[in-house]
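Task 17 of the worksheet. Students: predict the tertiary structure of the chain below and write it out as structure tokens. Keep your answer in the requested format; marks are given for formatting as well as content.
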Amino acid sequence: MMWKKGWREAIWSQLDQPFDLVVIGGGITGAGVFLESVAAGLKTLLVEAHDFASGTSSRSSKLVHGGFRYLKNGQLKITYDSVRERERLLQENRGLINQLGFVIASYKGNRIPMWALGFGLTFYDLLALKWGHKYYDQEGLLELCPNLNSHELRGGYRYFDALTDDARLVLRNILEGVRLGGFALNYARVEGFIVTQNGI
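Model answer:
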């Protein structure tokens, strides 16, 4: 198992065998591809030039959102896909991905009227197949968020997306892939490819 004494040497000693798939890059995308391919029965090797999750995957916004902002542009398909993926991740990664509440305050003169926000959030919840948003009048919203500017505040909504520890999510995917029989190695830079009649 990874991180037990001698794990790197054990992996290096097995790199001369043929692999069905070699994944280059140990960020969230590479880790996800690694886990899925191992779970599908492919003999898979993941290599990363630096440490796992050392790039963008450890410095993201950490949000796992359903794409609420895409609704105003009519991008229903991407919103649907994002919401369904968020819900799947929440189910499969309890304790690592958790709900995070957001508040949208509505003030007099806002470009988007209150009813439109409510309609959008209702549709957003329907995509997730669960009711998650709530309307607050001015008094209720100030009780929930006492530091809000109360001048011309009409009310607002609270809704939920999700938050994760991005680096831990990467490591969990890699560890699960290794547990299922995959091979993963960090600080292993790919220098080039040798092409033969049997493949790369």
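Marker's comment: Residues 63-164 form one domain. The beta strands are 21-24, 44-47, 63-64, 97-107, 134-137, 153-164, 183-185.
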